[in-house]
Amino acid sequence: MNLFSIVLFVSLLGAGMPQNRSNSKGVSRNSSPSRRTANPSGEPAQPVTNEDPPRANLTALEDNSGNLVSHVRTLAQTLYQCSKSATTDELKLNFLKSTTVTCNDGTPAGYYIRESKGSKRWLIFLEGGWCCYSKESCDARYRSIPRLMGSSEWPQAQKGSGILSAQPEENPHWWNANTV
């Protein structure tokens, strides 16, 4: 991601600079708007004004820069594919090694994790759902939502969606974060 940021910055920096300065007029920030200065040949020069210099027309620069935008898009897509191949979309199941920490039914406690190499950001998702406060309520919870009571039926890997997604189209802010 750092290489992409650098390339994007450098390309945008180059796109913001004018390509042809032969038509630009000398503009000075002088308090006298109607003052004229003479050029070295003695002829009157263009009037000096307090107006802001013209802004760069980025559309015109895109045409003159050899399709810079399309090159940047291609580069971004290539870098995305490279970073995507290094990571997986799936969250992998890990069980805790401690036998004293268990689920309600006695199966080992666990969590899902997806590591994103190079990312220092972490997204920790704590899934909620019910609670039980007596034997009857725990039995009802076990019958209605067994996956919240034990880990015996958990899949070895699962694909995240929404904020847990590894797709930048679905999760534009956290797609490459380490996820638990």
From TrEMBL:
Location of the region described as Disordered in the Swiss-Prot/TrEMBL record: 19-54
Signal peptide start and end residues: 1-18
Keywords annotated in UniProt: Signal
Pfam families from the UniProt entry: PAE (PF03283)
GO MF, any single term: palmitoleyl hydrolase activity
UniProt xrefs under InterPro entries: PAE/NOTUM
Example GO biological process: negative regulation of canonical Wnt signaling pathway
Origin superkingdom: Eukaryota
Compositional bias ranges of the Polar residues kind: 19-40
Family membership: Belongs to the pectinacetylesterase family. Notum subfamily.
Name listed for the protein in its UniProt record: Uncharacterized protein
Lineage, uppermost ranks: Eukaryota, Metazoa, Chordata, Craniata, Vertebrata
